[in-house]
Amino acid sequence: MWVAEPATDLPYNRPLGAVPPDQFTGRFFVDTLVFPLSDQADNVTQIPTSAAPASALFQSSIKSLPLLGRGKVRDIYAVDSDKLLIVTSDRISAFDVVMPDPVPGKGKVLTRLAGFWFTKLADIVPNQLTGIDPESVVAADEREQVRGRALVVKRLRPLPIEAVVRGYLIGSGWKDYQITGGVCGVPLPIGLRLASKLPAPIFTPATKAVIGEHDENISFAQAQTACERAFADLPAGDGQTIAEQARAAAIALYTTAAAHAAARGIIIADTKFEFGVDGAGTLHLIDEALTPDSSRFWPADAYREGENPPSYDKQYLRDYLETLDWNKQAPAPSLPPAVLAQTQAKYTEACERLTGESFVD
Ligand SMILES: Nc1ncnc2c1ncn2[C@@H]1O[C@H](COP(=O)(O)OP(=O)(O)O)[C@@H](O)[C@H]1O
Ligand SMILES: [Mg+2]
Description:
This protein is of the alpha+beta class and 361 residues long. It has one domain: ATP-grasp fold, B domain (D-amino Acid Aminotransferase, Chain A, domain 1, 2-Layer Sandwich). The protein is 29% helix and 20% strand. Helix 3 (106-120) runs parallel beside helix 9 and helix 6 (220-230) crosses helix 7 (238-263). The radius of gyration is 19 Å and the shape is globular. The structure holds adenosine-5'-diphosphate (ADP) and magnesium ion (MG).
């Protein structure tokens, strides 16, 4: 079985960090280089053939701002040279392929939950939030598209790594452990079982895969090398320091979030953060944080060491897809309404349990 890692979404776009420094304009990227629209990105823009509920947003179409690109889930527009508008669509991907049908309201649930975490965790590391109302940066007739599902964020230089933190042994971590006795080169005690809680959370970075490829787990030394290369325009050693800061921030963010979630009956088994740096080299939390797209959420009451736990994330969709004769290559099959509804329900429940508030659109 293909086991998705916490970094369940891969970029359609070349990671920003892959843009050579000589193509920067001062602190910021040249717009056209930031999110090159690839053929695959164009695939995302296909309107799904099956009928989506009217409330679902498969993709945004903001004409008043330049479109920089579309990820698997988010559409990114330039607000100005130092701010982006990120619109979280209702697209869902599994096995790194975007499904043809949206999960109605998913983008709003993700935005609500990520917003909750950004606020709660703001003391640990600076984040991308600007506090600017997304509705204020688009035309009047475009406000509906961004309401509740968009953020105006600082435009930062993403690190070329996925900052994965694991508190439990599952997925590729479990596979790695069975072969090497550790995960991503981090040694672990003997005798751990599937889904065992780790003695302490570990940082296990992954590459930000280029188009059509899966993320790959890498050692911390490799993550440092990647950051050194991506930030070669900064003084020597800065890239390595940025990687160290990302590791420390990721562990601290996970630890605080996991304690909050535990008090609400949810185990955050693992999660993936993205970080970026501003022109001064200051590390920021970017993208999204601690949602079912980027994390494994397990109901604490159903957790049993040694067993694959049920979850509040994409596992339900993946399990359904595993029942089909589908080769996990695009195009993905159309999803039955019941699968979409169940996925929506699971995402909403995770959001409500974690935020402590009912989710009202
Ligand atoms: N504050 C930011 N500054 C620059 N880039 C960002 C920022 N926040 C997110 N991004 C980038 O925007 C994209 C978000 O789109 P998404 O659909 O999540 O992409 P993916 O398919 O890579 O998961 C990612 O490439 C992410 O690195
Ligand atoms: Mg993403």
